[in-house]
């Protein structure tokens, strides 16, 4: 099944609360994509508990990898390299994947490729879009990151803007908790907002004069909390759907405005959104409209490739493999790894 020139990557992802393994052919064809989610476990605590995440990864990782290989119909000897997320993320969680990848690569005598988690999120766009090739722009919006990135080439990035405080997904999760929707908040706000009026309440949109591509979401989050407190103090009920929809619109307005400023300034004609929040239906819609108006082709992954998965790590690892990236047996988890660092 592994033709002469085909490159098969076994990829592992364990940076947060999903234990995931995948086999990816030539960076774009997903032969298997197994995800064991811990969401139900962490829901009890209202968010990810790092120590529980690490323990659960240890429990699940072997069976997840075995399933990925068997579903792909490949044995370890057909694999060309092992790719693994080594940062950024929760250190204990990352370590489980890194140790596993090192053990497998060493035993099977295969090259080891450490992958940056954000590079993986961006590469998720290659899986379903054959025509997408660098250069392009990307907005990476997840639970831990909000980055506006210029993708110069495969594995070559310039970060144009980033959040100064909360990540977009983090703001969704915190606001969801405050309005009683629970964890994980993003998908719930997305759903509830469909019944709300996005113009019911005006929440602030942060704009940094000195760094027009940067983001800040702590202000909008505090404004929502103040609004709710205000209502409670007055003994008034608030409309959950209106708060959700108005908050969502405030976040999306800023994401789209900064993204379009980059489109105009850097004159790109391809834009890819990535990360868990990229599955948000209102963000997709707003980006679609804004890109259409400017003649820019918009790309986004299917929801399963937006949130954490190993197929995206396999896609990124393939291009790193082609670029000659190889890591040694001393590869370590780097919880605050910077994009473009080796
Ligand atoms: O990429 P991801 O799985 O993990 C990180 O790398 O952080 O992103 C998870 C984040 C969570 O904050 C979750 O609430 C958010 O993505 N998310 C969404 C949606 N689906 C997931 N946010 C808004 N709308 C959604 N539909
Ligand atoms: Zn992620």
Describe the 3D structure:
- This protein has 342 residues and is of the alpha/beta class.
- The protein has two domains: 8-124 and 305-322, ATPase, nucleotide binding domain (Nucleotidyltransferase, domain 5); 133-303, ATPase, nucleotide binding domain (Nucleotidyltransferase, domain 5, 2-Layer Sandwich).
- The chain is built from eleven helices and ten strands.
- It has helices at 39-43, 50-72, 91-108, 117-128, 168-178, 185-193, 218-233, 240-266, 281-293, 303-306, 311-323, and strands at residues 8-13, 18-25, 29-37, 81-87, 112-116, 136-141, 146-153, 156-162, 270-274, 297-299.
- The strands form two sheets. A five-stranded mixed sheet has the order 3-2-1-4-5, with helices on both faces. A five-stranded mixed sheet has the order 8-7-6-9-10, sandwiched between helices.
- Helix 2 (50-72) packs parallel to helix 3 (91-108).
- The chain is globular.
- Residues 117, 121, 142, 275, 308 line the site of zinc ion.
Task: Provide a quick synopsis of the model.
The protein is an alpha/beta fold and 342 residues long. It has two domains: 8-124 and 305-322, 2-Layer Sandwich (Nucleotidyltransferase, domain 5); 133-303, ATPase, nucleotide binding domain (Nucleotidyltransferase, domain 5), CATH 3.30.420.
